[in-house]
Amino acid sequence: xxxxxxxxxxxxxxPSPDLLPANLLSAATQRILTTRSVYTPILEYGPSHGHPTxxxxxxxxxxxxxxxxxxxxxxxxTGGASQSIANILLSFTDPAYTRSVWMIAPCYYLACGxxxxxxxxxxxxxxxxxxxxxxxxxxxxxxxxxxxQEENVSSEKLFKSPGAYxxxxxxxIYAVPTSSNPSGKTMSLRRREQLVKLARKYDALIICDDVxxxxxWPLQGEPTVERPPEMRLPRLCDIDxxxxxxxxDLEGFGHAISNxxxxxxxxxxxxxxxxxxxxxxxxxxxRTGATLSGGAPSQLSAAILxxxxxxxxxxxxxxxxxxxxxxxxxxxxxxxxxxxxxxxGVELRESSLAGAATYGGYFVWxxxxxxxxxxxxxxxxxxxxxxxxxxxxxxxxxxxxxxLGFGKDIRLCFAWEDxxxxxxxxxxxxxxxxxxxxxxxxxxxxxxxxxxxxxxDSYK
Length: 460
Ligand SMILES: Cc1ncc(COP(=O)(O)O)c(C=O)c1O
Fold this sequence. Notes:
- The chain folds into two domains: 8-19 and 323-458, Aspartate Aminotransferase, domain 1, CATH 3.90.1150; 22-315, Type I PLP-dependent aspartate aminotransferase-like (Major domain) (Aspartate Aminotransferase, domain 2).
- 40% of the residues lie in helices and 13% in strands.
- The protein contains 15 helices and 15 strands.
- It has helices spanning 22-32, 36-43, 52-66, 81-92, 110-120, 136-149, 189-201, 236-242, 279-286, 289-294, 299-311, 313-341, 374-385, 419-438, 440-445; strands spanning 8-9, 75-78, 100-105, 124-128, 171-175, 204-209, 216-218, 256-261, 273-276, 346-348, 358-360, 363-368, 387-388, 390-391, 410-413.
- The strands form four sheets. It has a seven-stranded mixed β-sheet with strand order 2-9-8-6-5-3-4, with helices on both faces. Strands 10-12-15-14 form a four-stranded antiparallel β-sheet, with helices on one face. It has a two-stranded parallel ribbon with strand order 1-13.
- Helix 7 (189-201) links the parallel strand 5 and strand 6.
- Helix 3 crosses helix 11 (299-311), helix 12 packs parallel to helix 14 (419-438) and helix 13 (374-385) crosses helix 14.
- It is globular and about 65 Å long.
- 48% of the residues are buried.
- The chain binds pyridoxal-5'-phosphate.
- One of its GO terms (molecular function) is 2-aminoadipate transaminase activity.
């Protein structure tokens, strides 16, 4: 059988080149670099918490979206979600004090390396999702078992000092509560509240990658600018704020932060995001050594984005271009899945949020019923169909693969390829699965290649 000539990539989790707003960015850059009094503070070292126009614009935008009081003091500009996690870990954890990083799994796999680089190799622990986003009982059982086991472990010799402006947390919990990468699930309000309470009890910091919150749409009908409540559930940081200071946190650092990013709204190359958290936490984050020395990350990009938020162009772009386009691609993928993959036997979730009719983010998570290893399916997809897909082992928690495995699952991205390629790619996957079902013995006899993450850098 001849290999299809065109490679289709349903693994790559990047925005489509059709959705990169080069013209908007170019015009905004021209505007802010014309006048000396405007460009000087942009091109010099900037304040540690980020360019003021972006902080103000974000406070307004986020306040409106989540229905919270805008508060600039709760916002810090970052170099995007990934760099932001690294800075948070530098300032608020010490591997000699912080016991463990709890990763809701399957997880955004490139986050593992950030935690490992911060001294947590071998201490990342997988904790399962459930239908509502996180299995709270399982997580509590695991944390309390670890606390018992490490009761007598000394934390006296720390590697660093938190100083006056920061604190070290005893645990970190990493979550993507809305339209998760990779499962597509959105955590219910009930689970969000339970998770914040749990974090307060065990002095954990919940780092929420809220990078898909603005990218949600209804399953039926067009997306509306005024979103229904199920598409703007409170972030965990909003719930934490509403609960007031916890008993074990009288200084008010809080237990949940929102890690936002412009990567999926504008383009990853803009390398800018934000953290929203308690003001005390924001002050501490601004005191990360590299930030004190260099100023807030991504200063010029931040000023460009601040300009676009100020004029309303960025918000309009997300509403008029990004959301409808992702909705269109998601619909195309689901239609193709139902036509070509469902007949071969597969389990999947229609809605991000259980009990609602919404979807969001970039990804669909599928479990073929044939039970074949998804690494084998992914390898055969490249060999026989010129199709690249994500396989479940990629999304296991580094060092804790044995406790939660995803060797039978597949992740498909609907953001990178356009509608025609998405439809064709899913059709190729359906054809492959059918062939594999019919010739199971042959496929099982093929030599299986192990999981290899040397190429993942380019796929997110
Ligand atoms: C959950 C999650 N967090 C973080 C990132 C990377 O974010 P950034 O580009 O802002 O570093 C991604 C990218 O796919 C992601 O899916």
